[in-house]
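Quick illustration, no need to memorize.
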Amino acid sequence: MDFVKDKKGFSIAEVIISLAVILIVSLSALTIVKASNISSLKTVSCAETRSYTETVLELYKFADTKTEFDERFNELSFRDKFVVEGNRFAYSDNFVELVITVDFDANVFSAVGKRLPDKVFINIEYEKAI
C-alpha cells in the first residue's frame, strides 16, 4: 500500500479556528438583530400608546357627560388593555406606562405616557371649553 505524501484538506486546528470565527461572527450578528428587534418593539409600543391616547382624548372632547364617555370607552377594541379606577385609566406593557385622567366636573383631561423606566413621551393637559 502506498501512502500519499501530499496532504490534502484541512487540519483539525484549521477547522476549529474557522468554526470559532464563524461562531463569533454569528453571535455578533444575533446580538445586533436582537437589539434591533427590541428597539422596534419599543417604537411600536410607543406608537400604539400615542394612538390610544389620541382616541381617548377624542372621546373626551365629544362626550358631554361621564356616562356617555364611559359608554363609548367601553366600545373600544383596546378597552381590555386598560385598568379603570373611577376617572383614572391606566395602561402598561413591557416598555410603556400611560395614565389618563378625565374630570368632567373640572372639564380637564390629562395624559402622561412614560417610556420605561422614566422617559416621558406623552404629556397632555386639555381643558374643555364650556
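The chain has two helices and five strands.
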